[in-house]
Design a protein that fits this description.
By secondary structure, the chain is an alpha+beta fold. It has 12 helices and 5 strands. This is histidine kinase.
Length: 414
C-alpha cells in the first residue's frame, strides 16, 4: 500500500480551508434549525461526491468505490443527534478504509469525522469517545507522515473540545441546581422566621387588644350616668376587640401550620423585652465563661413592645453566635438611645464566623429588624472581632419609662 502522498503545491490546503469556511458559515445559518445535521450531511455529501469525481486518475481508487466511500463518510451524519455512537463508528470505518488504501481522505469526510467525534465527546463519556481515535493513532505511529499526525491532532482535538463543553455544561447545570436549592432553602427559612416572629408578636398585640376590651367593658359598667348611646358604643368596642382576638388566634393557627411541628407548641410565657436583657446577659456570662457587659447610653425611654421584642431577640441571637463562633471571647452589648432611634450593638473580640451574610440566625435578625422598619449590619468590627449592629426607629411620641416600671441598667462585670 502506498503512503498518503503530499502535494507540492498548496491547492489541497486552500481547498480544505475554503470548504471549512463554507461549512462553518452554513452551520451558523442553520444552527438553530431542527434539521441542522440533515442539512450538514447533505452539504458534506455533495462536496465529497464532487471531490471524488474530480480526482479522476490521480488515485488508484475507481470512481464507483470513491463515490461509495464519499457517501459512507458523510451521509450518516444526518442521524448524529439520535445515534451518535453508531454514526461516529460508521464515519470512522469509512475514513479508516480510505486511509488503509493509501488514499488521501476526502476533505468533507474529514469534516464529518470531526463533527461526529465532537458530538460524541459532548454527549458521551470519555471512555466511549476516546477509542474512536485508535485508528488515527495507529496510522500516525505506523506512517511518519505529517498528514496523519495532523489528522490525529484534529480528531483528538474534536473529542477533547466536545468533552470540555460537556463538562462545562454539567458544571453550569450543577451550579444552577445548587443555587436554586440554596434559594429555595433560604426562602423556606425566611418564611419560617416570619412565621415565628408573627407568633411572638401575637402575644404583644393580643395583650393590647385585650386591654381595649377590658377597659371598654369597665368604662361601660363603672361610669355613672352614662348615656345609653355611649354604653352601646363601649359595648360595640368590646365586642370588636374580642372578635379581633378570635381572628388573631385563627391566624396564629395558620402560622403554626406553616412551620415545623416542633415549633408549633403554644408559648405560655410573656414575650421578653428590654427589661429582661440583664437576665439574658447574666445567662450568657455564666454559660460562656467570659466577660459579657450590658452598656446603656442616652436617655432611657419607653418603646413599643414590638421594638423591645425585636431588640431582645437580636441580642439573644448575637450572643448565641458569639458563643458558637468565638467561645471564651469577651462580648459587649450596647444600647444607645437617641431622639429618633435605638442603636443596638453586640461586639466581641473573637474571630467571628467565616461568612457574615449567610445562616438562618442572621436571616432571622434581618427579618426582625426590617419588620419594625430598622436596619441590620453584620461584619468585622473596625477594632477587631465581630460586630452586629441594628438601628431601630423610635416614634416621636414615645417618652417615659419602660412598660411595667422596669428600667434597663448596665450590668456589672464580675
Amino acid at each position: 500500500m502506498r503512503a498518503v502522498r503530499g502535494r507540492a503545491d498548496n491547492a489541497p490546503v486552500s481547498q480544505a480551508r475554503e470548504l471549512a469556511d463554507r461549512v462553518v458559515l452554513a452551520t451558523r445559518r442553520i444552527g438553530g434549525a431542527r434539521d441542522a445535521m440533515l442539512v450538514a450531511a447533505a452539504v458534506l455529501a455533495l462536496l465529497a461526491v464532487v471531490e471524488a469525481g474530480g480526482r479522476g486518475d490521480q488515485t488508484g481508487m475507481d470512481l464507483g468505490t470513491a463515490l461509495l466511500l464519499s457517501l459512507w463518510a458523510t451521509l450518516p451524519l444526518m442521524f448524529l443527534t439520535a445515534h451518535p455512537v453508531a454514526v461516529a463508528l460508521a464515519i470512522t470505518i469509512a475514513n479508516a478504509i480510505i486511509l488503509g488504501g493509501s488514499e488521501p481522505p476526502f476533505s468533507a469526510g474529514v469534516l464529518a469525522e470531526l463533527l461526529a467525534l465532537y458530538w460524541l465527546g459532548r454527549t458521551r463519556s470519555r471512555k466511549i469517545a476516546f477509542p474512536f481515535l485508535l485508528p488515527f493513532v495507529l496510522y500516525a505511529l505506523g506512517r511518519p507522515d505529517p498528514g496523519f499526525t495532523l489528522l490525529l491532532l484534529l480528531t483528538a482535538g474534536a473529542v477533547l473540545l466536545g468533552a470540555a463543553i460537556r463538562d462545562r455544561g454539567k458544571a453550569v447545570a450543577s451550579a444552577a441546581a445548587s443555587r436554586a436549592t440554596a434559594d429555595t432553602l433560604l426562602e423556606h427559612a425566611a418564611r419560617g422566621e416570619r412565621a415565628r416572629i408573627a407568633r411572638e408578636l401575637h402575644d404583644v398585640v393580643a395583650h393590647h387588644i385585650s386591654m381595649i376590651a377590658v377597659q371598654a367593658e369597665t368604662a361601660r359598667l363603672t361610669t355613672p350616668g352614662m348615656p345609653p348611646d355611649g354604653a352601646k358604643r363601649l359595648l360595640a368596642i368590646g365586642d370588636t376587640a374580642r372578635t379581633a382576638l378570635t381572628e388573631m388566634r385563627r391566624l396564629l393557627g395558620v402560622l403554626r401550620e406553616d412551620v415545623s411541628p416542633l415549633d408549633s407548641g403554644p408559648v405560655r410565657a410573656p414575650q421578653p423585652g428590654l427589661a429582661e436583657l440583664n437576665a439574658l446577659v447574666d445567662e450568657a456570662r455564666a454559660s460562656g465563661g467570659a466577660g459579657t457587659r450590658l452598656i446603656v447610653q442616652g436617655k432611657v425611654m419607653p418603646l413599643d413592645p414590638g421594638v423591645q421584642l425585636t431588640a431582645y431577640r437580636i441580642v439573644q441571637e448575637a450572643l448565641t453566635n458569639a458563643r458558637r463562633h468565638a467561645p471564651g471571647a469577651a462580648v459587649d452589648v450596647e444600647l444607645d438611645y437617641t431622639a429618633s432611634a435605638l442603636l443596638v450593638r453586640v461586639r466581641d473580640n473573637g474571630p467571628g464566623p467565616e461568612s457574615s451574610g449567610d445562616g438562618h440566625g442572621l436571616l432571622g435578625m434581618r427579618e426582625r429588624a426590617a419588620m419594625v422598619g430598622g436596619t441590620l449590619t453584620v461584619g468585622r468590627s473596625p477594632g477587631g472581632g465581630f460586630l452586629v449592629e441594628t438601628v431601630l426607629p423610635i416614634p416621636a411620641d414615645e417618652t417615659g419609662l419602660l412598660p411595667g416600671g422596669g428600667a434597663v441598667t448596665p450590668a456589672e462585670e464580675p
